[in-house]
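INFO batch 0412 | record 1 of 1 | parsing
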Amino acid sequence: MRYVYFTKTLQALDLAGMIAFLKEAGLDGADLAVRPGYPVTPDNVAVELPKAAKAFQDAGLTIGLVTAPTNLNDAESLIARTIFEACGKAGVPAIKIGYFTYKDKIDVSVAEARTRLGGFAKLAAKTGVRACYHTHSGNYLGNNCAGLRLLLQDLDPHQVGAFVDTGHTAINGGPFRMELDLVRPWLSLLAIKDMLWRKDKDAWQAHVMPVGEGIVRWNEVGQALKDAKFNGTISLHGEYETRDLAERKQLAKQELEVLKKRFG
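INFO prediction complete | emitting tokens
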């Protein structure tokens, strides 16, 4: 398994700073955010992503996947084609695409999303870069693996994959072993989050926490991964607040140590 870090929380760093952070934390590489305001953006990705991939490679690291903007959900768009082609050129194997939302009729929403995913399957076949869809709780289609299976059924797993999130499935999924079994043919990536419910004013909200400080049953996650014979890329999302970069780096080290012990 390869452990990478989602660079969403490293926006203040340039590529050299990200590389230093990852190496010092003991990670294998990056889940690189290609979004406005980051070193590699949708506008410069064709030129800058291959450069970034070489810089990571020279440092003994990898870009395990690219995370696109959350609204990248149309394979026919110029931005989608540009990002996929850039990843193919740079040797990045997977892209986390954007989300599809639930509207007023579930059958209509699912049918529309499946049509869009079919477009991404064609783009993946053309570029050799797998499109991956992330399980995110809330008003999103595929917000657990049962819902995600509705979107992915009949699609080629080499072209469209499942990006299963430990925290979001803990919020609104079933036992983790069942979650993975539901999407096993498409299982491509694992996102690491822990979650904790907190009451904010009059409503309960789920907050991302460091591994071990929330409701995720990590022993069950580890056993489920073994049962599924998962040996892919694991992305530490780190989407919790820290005092500074030093604390973030220390928490990344701690999470990595815990995960390697749990996952074997």
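INFO post-check: The first helix runs from residue 15 to 25.
INFO record closed
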